[in-house]
Amino acid sequence: MQDKTLTCRDCGQEFVFTASEQEFFAQKGFTNEPSRCPECRAARKSSRGEGGYSGRRDSNRQMYPAVCATCGKETQVPFEPRGDRPVYCSDCYSSQRSSSGGYGSRSGSGSGGGRRRSW
Question: How many domains does the chain fold into?
Answer without folding.
Answer: 2
